[in-house]
Amino acid sequence: LDVGCGSSKILGALPQAIGLDINFKILRHNLPLSNPLVNADIRNLPFIDACFDEIICSQVIEYLKQEEYLFQGLKRVLKKDGILIIGTPDYSRFSWILIEWLYKKLIPGGYADEHISHYSRKSLVSIMQNLGFRLEAYKYILGSELICKFKKII
């Protein structure tokens, strides 16, 4: 499951994945792909419990109010020992603070102003551990974009 798939390239690389996005207009860009598409909200996932082995949620959580129920829904639809990949800016990294500052200067009113939740690796890992996930690995893109791989253990 690719939550918040938008018009990303992830679905094209994973023909077996289901794309989910709240924005129907953006979701339509994926129609040429053979992937199943679902127009829904991360806050109300329309799937039965424990039905996915893997979930990708990239560039989504920073746009939503930081509340545990966002992650509880992902946990609910993920099988035990399933993998959850989360991508979000790491607001504890100077490189991200600089990138966002430059973006605001160059494109006032751009997406940077839409980020309402600011995660760090430490805060995200803490949230996920409290929900029964274990951090398996993490990497940074350009030293600022955090990509975490979690395993559901509970």
Notable characteristics:
154 residues, alpha/beta, 7-stranded mixed β-sheet, 27% helix, globular
Strand content: 25-35%
Arrangement of strands in the largest sheet? 3-2-1-4-5-7-6
Instruction: Give start-end ranges of low-pLDDT stretches.
Output: none
N/C terminus separation: 20 Å
Count of runs of 4 or more consecutive helical residues? 5
Kindly describe this structure.
- The protein is of the alpha/beta class and 154 residues long.
- It has helices spanning 10-13, 24-27, 68-77, 94-106, 121-130; strands at residues 2-3, 19-21, 37-39, 52-58, 78-89, 133-141, 145-152.
- Strand 1, helix 1 (10-13) and strand 2 form a beta-alpha-beta unit.
- The longest helix has 13 residues, at 94-106.
How is this fold's topology laid out?
Elements: E1 2-3, H1 10-13, E2 19-21, H2 24-27, E3 37-39, E4 52-58, H3 68-77, E5 78-89, H4 94-106, H5 121-130, E6 133-141, E7 145-152
Parallel strand pairs: 1-2, 1-4, 2-3, 4-5
Antiparallel strand pairs: 5-7, 6-7
